[in-house]
Write a structure and sequence with these properties.
Blueprint: H1 6-26, H2 30-39, E1 47-50, E2 53-56, H3 57-86, H4 89-106, H5 115-137, H6 140-143, H7 149-176, H8 185-210, H9 225-241, H10 244-273, H11 279-307, H12 309-329, H13 333-361, H14 369-398, H15 401-432
Antiparallel strand pairs: 1-2
Helix pairs in contact: 1-5, 1-7, 1-8, 3-4, 3-5, 3-9, 3-14, 4-5, 4-8, 5-14, 7-8, 7-11, 7-13, 10-13, 10-14, 10-15, 11-12, 11-13, 12-13, 12-15, 14-15
Length: about 425
């Protein structure tokens, strides 16, 4: 495949445009606000029954997401290895996209009296989103040379932020002004979930049309696809163990991702439950985050050219630690807005730079990019599992989401220490060269 082709890169970035609507509407704004609104019950301490078991409402949604990411973490190494072995990763990308889009559309029917149905659809949508992303990410080293990967990665996130903001504004109109459309607050939220599903699958067909299906990593297939997939996974794992920088980056990425991804997923619930912010305010906050994140992704890309990826990531993680402490002490809407702007700036930067840093550490021009990127995505998903379970557990244990937010500092500090050791190793290798 020709690298640095503008048409291919633009089509690739449209996958982010398509599925980021899920990330904004379902995990960050309208769904959390809708979910908290229909499950709030001061008489029971906001507890709900899920298949006969009692949970704090927000803890249940945290556990559902954590379980979804755990499922993805288990499945992806096998599926990506099969995809590389057969050379058909775009098929897997399509399957996960359809799963996510249809699950979002089904949330149109979610009400309190079918809580189990809603939570299951919520979890399946997360599986679709995260599962498709690993195959999407794996195209990065195939479509861009090393010197362009920071910029291309930032372009993908920029498309995602812009696309999701456009749909969010459309949904915002329905939620804020439901009566002219013959809706109420609840049905307006449900319509938003349906629109996400339609938007997601519609725009995803731009990259599906342009991107290649993938190249097989075997000249002839003497094994069945399952066994061949495991053989491929073993081969990639042996290669990973021989890469000193990659081995050090993944643990650092794991720990700081526990903090980053958890904050992104619980921010709206935190605002709704702790600060009692109405849905309109929450949507405004997340729009601020998304718009600032566009600048953050591009700013970090330029800074990495001057100072290097790892030093910039180190500084960004330091700012994240400050953001966690700030969340603990946030007492009103104004403070929450300021914190949101800071989070937006560092969110776009750390996501974009993490992906391109990992891509740079990979051998270039290899056919098994999906398998290599599965280690990156599984690391991120396991980080989300740990972060979400920890956040939900601390809230149930202490009765406060503020304590959960403060606890995330521990993960960032460990990630910071590991980034510093990675930078030392990088400099040592550069001196030898």
């Amino acid at each position: 495949m020709e690298k640095n082709n503008k048409k291919t890169i633009r089509a690739w970035a449209f996958f982010d445009w398509a599925n980021s609507a899920y990330n904004l509407v379902i995990t960050s704004t309208i769904f959390p606000a809708y979910y908290v609104a229909i499950t709030a019950n001061k008489a029971t301490g906001d507890r709900v029954n899920f298949f006969g078991k009692s949970f704090v409402n927000t803890a249940l949604s945290d556990y559902a997401l954590a379980t979804a990411y755990l499922v993805v973490a288990v499945l992806l190494p096998i599926l990506t290895s099969i995809a590389d072995y057969q050379g058909n990763k775009k098929i897997f990308m399509k399957c996960f996209t359809w799963l996510g889009a249809l699950s979002c559309a089904c949330l149109f029917f979610f009400k309190l009296n079918n809580l189990e149905f809603g939570i299951i659809c919520f979890a399946l949508a997360a599986i679709g989103y995260t599962g498709g992303f690993v195959f999407y990410n794996s195209y990065l080293p195939e479509i861009a040379t090393v010197d362009m990967q920071d910029k291309v990665s930032a372009k993908g996130f920029t498309y995602g932020y812009i696309g999701s903001v456009i749909l969010q504004i459309i949904c915002f109109v329905f939620v804020l002004f439901p009566k002219p459309f013959g809706l109420n607050a609840g049905s307006a939220a449900q319509l938003s979930f349906l629109l996400v599903g339609i938007w997601w699958i519609s725009f995803a067909y731009i990259p599906f049309t342009v991107l290649p299906k993938g190249s097989p990593n075997a000249q002839s297939h003497h094994q069945n696809i399952i066994k061949g997939g495991f053989i491929e996974l073993g081969n990639v794992w042996r290669k990973v163990k021989q890469m000193p920088l990659l081995k050090r980056f993944l643990p650092a990425f794991f720990f700081y991702s526990m903090g980053v991804q958890t904050i992104m997923l619980v921010a709206a619930s935190f605002g709704a439950k702790v600060l009692n912010l109405p849905t309109a305010n929450l949507i405004t906050v997340v729009l601020i985050i998304q718009l600032v994140a566009i600048g953050g992704a591009n700013l970090m890309s330029r800074m990495s050219e001057k100072y290097g990826n790892v030093p910039v990531l180190t500084v960004v993680v330091l700012v994240w630690i400050g953001a966690c402490v700030g969340a603990y002490f946030t007492a009103n809407a104004t403070q929450f807005y300021i914190l949101a702007a800071i989070v937006g700036l560092i969110m776009g930067g750390i996501q974009s730079l993490s992906r391109s840093t990992y891509s740079k550490y990979l051998p270039q021009d290899i056919p098994d990019t999906a398998s290599f990127f599965s280690f990156y995505d599984v690391t991120e998903k396991l980080a989300i599992v740990g972060g979400m379970f920890s956040f939900g557990f601390i809230e149930e244990l202490t009765g406060s989401m503020r304590n959960s937010a403060l606890m995330l500092c521990v993960f960032f500090i460990i990630g910071l220490i590991l980034l510093i050791t990675l930078h030392k190793e990088e400099r040592k290798i550069q001196k030898k060269v």
